Amino acid sequence: MAPKLPPQHTLEQSSATTTAGQAQEHDHHHGGPTGIKRWLLTTNHKEIGTLYLLFSLSMFFIGGIFALVVRAELFQPGLQLVEPEFFNQMTTMHGLIMVFGAVMPAFVGLANWMIPLQVGAPDMALPRLNNFSFWLLPVAFGLLLSTLFMPGGAPNFGWTFYAPLSTDYGPPSTTFFIFSLHIAGISSILGAINIIATILNMRAPGMRMMDMPLFVWTWLITAFLLIAVMPVLAGVITMMLMDINFGTSFFDAGGGGDPVLFQHLFWFFGHPEVYIMILPAFGIVSAIVPAFARKPLFGYASMVYATASIAILSFLVWVHHMFVVGLPLAAELFFMYTTMLIAVPTGVKVFNWVTTLFRGSITFETPMLFALAFIVMFTIGGFSGLMLAIVPADFQYHDTYFVVAHFHYVLVPGAVFAIIAGAYYWLPKWTGHYPDERLGRWHFWLSVIGVNLTFFPMHFSGLAGMPRRIPDYALQFADFNMVSSIGGFIFGVSQLLFIAVLIKCVRGGEKAPAKAWDGAEDLEWTVPSPAPLHTFETPPDLTSQAPQRH
Amino acid sequence: MSGSYYVPETSKWPALGSAAVGLMMIGMGVVLVHGVGSLVLGLGTVAVLAVMWFWFRDVVIESRQGLYDAQMDRSFRWGMGWFIFSEVMFFAAFFGTLYYVRVFALPWLDGEGAKGIATLLWPDFTASWPLMNPPDSSISGPRDIVSPWQLPLVNTLFLVASSITLTVSHEALKEGLRATARNWLIVTLALGACFLVVQGVEYYEAYTHYGITLDAGIYGSTFFLLTGFHGFHVTVGVVTLAVMLGRILKGHFSRDDHFAFEAGAWYWHFVDVVWIGLFLFVYVF
């Protein structure tokens, strides 16, 4: 699979113009505070984007360590290393940290860095609000992590925090967990408002909506989803807070409420939330595949419409998480069919990526490797999702490791691989250096092997009936679990290579020209590498350009 | 579009703001879980308010210096518009709760439909709305309910009238009639304050005479959830409009440049519309 060709970009080196001198000149204009204050007070979208990405990376490792505690305990049947109570805290905190602390901030970080560059804007529309959105996150997750040290321990009811497990039977720290989620939610809403305002109001003259790169489009729709559902999450955790502390009975049938109401509200947030975590990934892959296939994206308009369709459908499918809770038959059927409908726009996307590859001049640099792995393995996760959509089948799969396998396929080789692909793709723009190709390949192949060893066997243990979130299991699942645990550690440790790549790339390496990849066409590749602190202070005028995409 | 978009250099308010939010939330958590730490909560709340004051102050100063162009104005409009949409969704969760409980949860507890099995839990339970007798006998429901045609109707009139007076004030501002704008804004503020006083009286009566409390089962829960968060939003709206009055008195705003006022008005109308929903579905039907 490794190509014998030299990476294509070296061939292009001479023709691309580098304007690094101009970059330095720009940097001298910036006479703001230095040291820690520079990062605390910054209003610059690139600096805030870097903060988001570094924050997300540290959460990725913290959440990853929690996952490895889980995998170490499950290496063999029987209780091995940790108490069951602590095991539950680890599964819960792993999920919360990864969803709210790692994946979402990573995409916001990429949005911060790239959206102004891709639409030709000087910065985000509301730069101070942008800083506020970021600095709420360390507060939120500091508070969340501190619950590990509180009496009664951290939240232990799973990342879905179903009532009454979380309200009547949760640890005292649940109240702090609720507040940390409130803060993270405010951060998301404000960040999304900023992104929408930037996209709708800050595009360079002449850039119409249907000229925008797909990463911008997918983020526009993601931001809409965020503003629509994060307040619902805020509402449901507020009701939890009141049930816990003020004697209300929202989720208590004894007072006329209903625990199932919690699940409806949670999943009305939760299902759009999973698309929040995948739509920007679609955008990244839709940038990388054409760049390395050296062909324009196939079906640009249909990609936009497919993204919008997925977003709209995401509001109509939440009950498929609750098929076994006891619902009227009509509801089960309705939500089964709407869920299956999502496969249509998703299929359009996969078709378009594959067709973009068709007869392209493909090279396999690290970003492309991760993007291609995304297409294959996200599709596997999509198919197992289709299986889960079938009500009678879901009765069997519900709350087993099959579900764990499904959502890890869409989130790890899905969302996380897309984030990593985006990082490799845009690192030349951020640092001015190409990431180390050899280390990158090691990182890629070890990640692919690790991910599949970890999650593929979970399909089988799940179908055979192994329940999720339990620290012990029946002997017949032992082999699958041992393989999963070995894979988990391979995947976890190989992420250290990513750190090595990042450090190497920041400190030096092959110099990148403005247009770092020769098939990359969007606006960000017209500014120097590394991108100077301030770009597009006067927006580029694109009115004279011919329509690029269709 | 001319490259005049104002990008502020650096600011200490966002970072201080998140620290203040953290302090406030930690304080609230410690108060709720351990029953101590009201000082931290107080300090945090004051800090949040102070940061808001200084941050908005900076924005007002920059606006007065003419640093904002038409494009910046559009950013503010999009920002405020989407913020209100997020508030709509926040209340949608609470209205959804109310409908779900009334349409599904209570009839199912009473043995209706496919989920009728729930009736085995409390065979004697009879569904009704308002729910005066919660299923579990340890939870005592309200003794009586608030009549919609007394205080709530008065409050409806106050809020609807205030939306009209605010619009009059806004139109006056657009015509450059500053004194008229100021007077109608004062009337609006007075109506908003009256609403809050009446709501306070109603809460007092609900607790002391009607037995509508937070722990009176789902009726009290939804009643205070919806009216409470609405009341909080009215309070925020009154403070916002009071600031706008202060700015009018200081000579801010011109005929075609007064987005802060307009944003406050959008917010006020939104709060008004939420009340109409409350009046209909919490009180009348």
From TrEMBL, chain A:
Where is this chain's protein located in or outside the cell? Cell membrane; Membrane
Q: What is the species listed in this Swiss-Prot or TrEMBL entry?
A: Aidingimonas halophila
Positions of region (Disordered):
1-34
Q: What class of enzyme is it?
A: translocase
* This protein's name: Cytochrome c oxidase subunit 1
* One GO BP: electron transport coupled proton transport
Sequence similarity = Belongs to the heme-copper respiratory oxidase family.
Ordered alphabetically, the record's keywords are:
Cell membrane, Copper, Electron transport, Heme, Iron, Membrane, Metal-binding, Respiratory chain, Translocase, Transmembrane, Transmembrane helix, Transport
User: What taxonomic ancestry is recorded?
Assistant: Bacteria, Pseudomonadati, Pseudomonadota, Gammaproteobacteria, Oceanospirillales
What is catalyzed by this enzyme?
4 Fe(II)-[cytochrome c] + O2 + 8 H(+)(in) = 4 Fe(III)-[cytochrome c] + 2 H2O + 4 H(+)(out)
UniProtKB/TrEMBL annotation, chain B:
Q: What class of enzyme is it?
A: translocase
Q: Which residues form the Heme-copper oxidase subunit III family profile domain?
A: 1-285
Subcellular localization: Cell membrane; Membrane
The membrane topology term of the UniProt record is: Multi-pass membrane protein
* TM ranges: 12-33, 39-56, 76-101, 149-169, 181-198, 218-245, 266-284
Per the record, the GO terms for biological process are: aerobic electron transport chain
Q: What is its EC number?
A: 7.1.1.9
Q: Which GO terms describe its molecular function?
A: cytochrome-c oxidase activity
Establish whether keyword Membrane is in the entry: yes
- Please name the source species: Aidingimonas halophila
Keyword list, A-Z: Membrane, Translocase, Transmembrane, Transmembrane helix
**Upper taxonomic classification of the species?**
Bacteria, Pseudomonadati, Pseudomonadota, Gammaproteobacteria, Oceanospirillales
The protein's name is cytochrome-c oxidase
**Gene Ontology CC terms, in alphabetical order:** plasma membrane
Q: Which family does it belong to?
A: Belongs to the cytochrome c oxidase subunit 3 family.
Give the main localization category.
membrane
